[in-house]
Design a protein that fits this description.
- By secondary structure, the chain is an alpha+beta fold.
- It contains ten helices and six strands.
- Strand 4 and strand 5 form a beta hairpin.
- Helix 2 runs parallel beside helix 6 and helix 9 crosses helix 10.
Length: 247
């Protein structure tokens, strides 16, 4: 295991259509399969830490959180907008730098990440039973069954379940028909907000986005002018733009 860990020194990741980060290359392809291998970005990890905080009262073992992830820092932004990440020795819980977190899933059944999932699942069930008066106590098996059904749904639709979704689903789980007051205070950010912040974190070039926005505004102005000058013209707005360009 030590040799395997030593080979994990860098990886490349890019943001997907689901607004999550996914690895595309890794320094140790023999032990790590990048197909469906997600990586948790700095803002997502901070959100998970916020969700973990209430579990401190129920026996959260922070060392399990630390052991479950490999920490990576941003080394370079590639031309294709992917990010080269280098592994760092920092304690991911104490570092002041924005770090990506790659779960240790080399042993999916008994590894550090699996231990963390089991730990937080039990604590979440304990907390829910403490805060909600169920007719019958909620069990770990019930929560795990719901998580499996959700992941099976992703699989049937051809999607990989991202690790951020897997962890947050456990930490935010409340049985159907019940609610916790704290859930209202922790409204998840919209996908657009998450994307904008993710791109800002890796210092991505936003000029293209700004140019696209200006182009869209220009198109809207041209459409409005086309409607005023050619009210009875049935051609698409693009034609009016071309005529103006020819002049």
């Amino acid at each position: 295991m030590a040799n395997t860990t030593a080979k994990l020194t860098w990886c490349k990741a890019r943001i997907g259509e689901d607004m999550n980060w996914w690895t595309t290359e890794i320094s140790d392809p023999i032990n790590w399969d990048v197909d469906g291998l997600g990586i948790i970005d700095p803002r997502q990890f901070q959100h998970l830490l916020d969700l973990l905080e209430p579990l401190s009262e129920y026996g959260l073992q922070t060392e399990l959180v630390e052991d479950a992830f490999y920490a990576f820092g941003i080394d370079e932004i590639q031309e294709d907008k992917s990010v080269l990440l280098k592994r760092v020795p920092d304690n991911i819980l104490d570092s002041d730098d924005p770090l990506f977190a790659l779960p240790d899933v080399l042993d999916e059944e008994k590894g550090p990440y699996a231990d963390l999932l089991d730990h937080i699942t039990r604590l979440r069930v304990k907390m829910l039973n403490d805060l909600i008066e169920f007719a019958q106590k909620l069990t770990v098996e019930e929560l795990e069954e719901e998580m499996r059904e959700s992941q099976n749904g992703d699989f049937m639709e051809g999607r990989s379940t991202h690790y951020f979704s897997e962890i947050s689903s456990i930490l935010e789980y409340v049985p159907e028909g019940f609610e916790l007051d704290e859930d209202e205070e922790k409204t998840p950010e919209s996908e657009d907000e998450v994307l904008q912040k993710d791109l800002a974190d890796v210092n991505a070039d936003t000029d293209e986005t700004l140019e696209a926005d200006d182009t869209m505004k220009w198109d809207e102005e041209e459409e409005e002018q086309g409607e005023e000058v050619y009210e009875e013209h049935t051609s698409p707005p693009e034609d009016s733009t071309e005529e103006k360009s020819d002049k």
